[in-house]
What we know:
This protein is α/β, with parallel strands linked by helices. The chain is built from 18 helices and eight strands.
Amino acid sequence: MFENLQERLSEAFKLLKGKGKINEKNVRDALRQVKMSLLSADVNYKVVKEFMDKVTSEALGEKVIKSVTPDQQFVKIVNDKLTELLGGKEHGLDLKSRPSIVLMVGLQGSGKTTVSAKLARWLKKKNGRNPLLVADDVHRPAAIEQLEILGKSIDVPVFVGNRKDPYKIAKEAVNFAITKGNDVVIIDTAGRLHIDEGMMKEVEEIANLTKPDEVLMVLDSMAGQDVVNSAVEFDKRLTITGFVVTKLDGDSRGGVALSAKYVTGKPIKFVGVGEKLDQLDVFYPDRMASRILGMGDVVSLVEKVQEDLDKRKMKEMEKRLRKAQFTFDDFREQLSQIKKMGSLSSVLEMIPGVPKMKDVKVDEDQLVHVEAIINSMTKKERSNPEIINLSRKKRIAAGSGRSLSEVNKLMKNYDGMKKMIKQFGKLEKRGKLGKFPFQFK
Ligand SMILES: Nc1nc2c(ncn2[C@@H]2O[C@H](COP(=O)(O)OP(=O)(O)O)[C@@H](O)[C@H]2O)c(=O)[nH]1
Ligand SMILES: [Mg+2]
């Protein structure tokens, strides 16, 4: 369903190509294209609206980074918001009880039986669990046999019971697991082509009997928007805990995933990317967003450039520190960097060599005050702080609206910092200090 989306989005991104700056007009044109492409891909209009609101406010407020083009930056914004919409971060399985029960539900042909086996394999291989598969789709005899074959291929036992009564099978299976020491029970249930009362009642009853830790609804990503309605219905009746979206190896671009997550608020936990049993992936919203946009390379380029920019600024600062040339101009530049980048503690944590300081409280007001004081200095004072005598201090205090003692404190801090830097320089020259305390790779 997202077949045209990438094409139309790249049209939108083209609108920004060659533009020196993201301005209101060209962003609005591009945004209109994005909106059209989502709507024409049949994405739920509420989803589109929420998405557009977020992208618009971000895109219009963004400064252009020099080394990437506006269209590349725009792709990044759209990508980030899409990631958010898809659930942000990955969601694991919540398997607390012993044995843990996983109930697999969904329409016929969505991939329940395949996913049951894939999940058993994944839990065994990646989590060291000892799963039991339960063939609880008794309506089609072939379904039981299908699961038996799959279970054999991954060396996981399959419980079939009397092959007739789905409630009895489910109950017996849990007891079987307890006696055999299986710590997770995966129950494969019957589906229908469309939602019907009989099927709903059956899975509802199985859920009541087994009290599952996870109720995973399997969604066929190729099946179109109708699937979203069935997701709502299943969630209403069973309270599902998450989705597994299958057949993403086909032409589908994952639009169903986007809408189902939005309308139910339930996370996508896994995706199926092929018929083989190892073709199950934990769902990563960021990767899915890139896939929908088809622009993963652009996104990582922008990320890389942002990283490089930060690194370059750090390196520059390191050079000045080494030469003990640290002036109030540098100080001010640092402050504005810090303000731009968010809290001071997160910036400090980014500097290699600086110990992690969890919960460091930084008074952001203080930063504003310090900046005001520096702004009241003349250019000459900023680059030669040693000329700042008492009368200059008084003038600076009056000009910045801060007290003389605050100005004094700043001067003292500056002196201390500079002395420390000189010490480091000397020690380093004498070879007493193996490395400069801040190392930038
Ligand atoms: N290409 C592809 N095929 C899949 C995937 N998951 C399931 N299938 C196929 O979809 C068909 C229906 O799967 P099945 O597990 O029997 O669905 P169920 O009726 O819900 O149990 C089978 O032919 C599977 O091999 C997937 O991720 N990719
Ligand atoms: Mg099946």
